[in-house]
Amino acid sequence: MGTPVYSDDELVLQSVALEPLVLGCSARANDQFWGASDAEAAKFGLRLPHSMRTGPRFEVSGAFELRSFVMHLYHRPDEESRKSLLTGMHNFRFFYPESGAYLSASGDADKGEVLDAIDPKNKTRLRGADQQTPAHVPYLKIPPGDAASPQNASFKSVWCFESMEEDESTTVAWRKPYRLRHVASGKYLAVDTLSSTYLEAGQAPLNGEGSNLLGSDSRKRGEGFEEDDTLQLFTAALVDAEDPNETPGALGSRESIIFRLSPTDEVHEKLINGVNTLRLEHQAASGETLYFVSAREPKLKLTPLTSSNEGSAVQTKSNDSQAADLDLEGVSSSLGNTHGGRVLFSTKLNAVDVLKVVPLLLPESFLITQLKDRMNLFHQYTYYASTYGKRLLVLFYINDLGQKFTNRFEAFLHS
Amino acid sequence: MVPGSPHLNLCSYLVRICLDCIDDFQMETRSDDFINDALKKANTSSPQQFADSFSGEPNPIAQKIAVEIKLVDALFAAALAPYNRVLSNARPFAKAPMNELPQVLLKFLFVALQRSFFSNQAAQAYFCSRSARVWEPKNPNSGLGGPNPPLLPAQRKWKLWRDIILTQGFSRTCLI
């Protein structure tokens, strides 16, 4: 019965139970429904917190007028590929066998961004100790107990590959460009190739004190490379989706979030839906290939941003650092709350810096995706309900505006 | 509907999402008409009675995910939001009719938060170490126009909760 539906066909989706109601979609983004939107914040020259950024949202509802949708092919693997090959729909962990650690990152999308703007003096943003590295960075973390056991692994170490085209998903192939999404925070791995540090040949390796990678092996930073190598090292961090206004190579630019996968032992044409061993490569804007390396030193501690643009130095601590101060003996270790190892990208290949892709079990993968998808609405509700539904208050509440805006805000309240 | 309270569509949607979260945090699955039953129960029972109606065995995997992706923090902040809205730490819906959806939503948020660390010591320890913004008014009638209100430090409560965990191992009761 009926006729076959092909890709790019235009369809009218009619309700069987509520005939003649058809499925429709609003022509314009419906931001009235939500507390705050990216577009509205942009009118004030502001940006929403990472955890609330969604892009324009459209309302899908029943309609009596004729409405249609066009079917585009997103992903259609054959039966064999679906079972045996890794696709963009699969979540996985990156295991670093050299130290028995997982590539992890904080699940807090607003890491380092203190959103509490009600007190202009409490204007804290956090950065790495070098004042250059962003607060939200990937790191290598050894889980407590048996590292190979999935039960011990953290969900902060769950990643997925995304095609460079947003409207399609495919099986994952070697040496093709992909974006690497951190599932817990929803942000993308990126490499800053505009600024780098050098490790000269023969330079003393850095001390690994403080990292939970210390003691797992005796190799220190610099080992494994050729003696006459001069290493150029680049910082990795997590960013939102690509920003077209960013300089190519800077964090957040399209070039910064492209990665390629190189097999250590190419048995299959594509990545299988099982354990794959690979090297993670990044193509710099200059065309040079950069390789994932473990720096063998702890990730940088966070300090308040003290640049002139952000006002004077402040000593206020973030919620996270308060929590760290309040940490309990025993509780800390039970949560595996030790300092992770720093991750960098290098111009030189190191033979031991390989990663294993370990796919998640399907129920766990489904659960984390499902729970993560609900986060944004809770954030929207929080800011909307906190501010009495006044959208200006929403914008005030969520942004670090300083005293100038406070005066305008109070004038607004008294008007 | 109280002027300025969250959009009813948003509240209605969040009630469903809270129920989905509660469903994930425990092993049992609910029936299709559970949403209507839960809404009736939330409207007619006290928060304690309503919380008692969710008694499934906890799902430790979902609870661990909620901690690590910061869903617990999002639920905590959402549950406190109406209190911030009126700049008071008591009865944010005092002027609202009993069946207001935003008021009912708060009960669902509290239960979802409770189920996220129910019978899970690691999740409880995590929750106890969190802090959230609560605006403390100078006096109940000071309103928004006054000087910037100080933040209410969460450490006071945190110390109390820490004692509970250290002395009893874990608490089966809702900590809020």
Notes on the protein architecture:
The complex is a heterodimer of chains A (415) and B (176). Chain A folds into two domains: 10-72 and 382-414, no CATH class; 79-368, Trefoil (Acidic Fibroblast Growth Factor, subunit A) (Trefoil). The N and C termini of chain A lie far apart (65 Å). Chain A has 415 residues and is an alpha+beta fold. Chain A has helices spanning 38-43, 79-84, 319-325, 331-334, 362-386, 391-398, 403-414; strands at 10-11, 22-25, 60-63, 69-70, 92-96, 101-104, 126-128, 139-141, 158-163, 178-182, 187-199, 231-239, 259-263, 276-283, 289-298, 302-304, 341-346, 355-359. In chain A, strands 5, 6, 8, 9, 10, 11, 12, 13, 14, 15, 17 and 18 form a twelve-stranded antiparallel beta sheet that branches. A two-stranded antiparallel ribbon of chain A has the order 1-4. Chain B has one domain. Chain B contains eight helices and no strands. In chain B, helix 1 (8-25) runs parallel beside helix 6, helix 5 packs antiparallel against helix 6 and helix 7 packs antiparallel against helix 8 (155-168). The longest helix of chain B is centred in the N-terminal third of the chain and has 18 residues, at 8-25. The two termini of chain B are 26 Å apart.
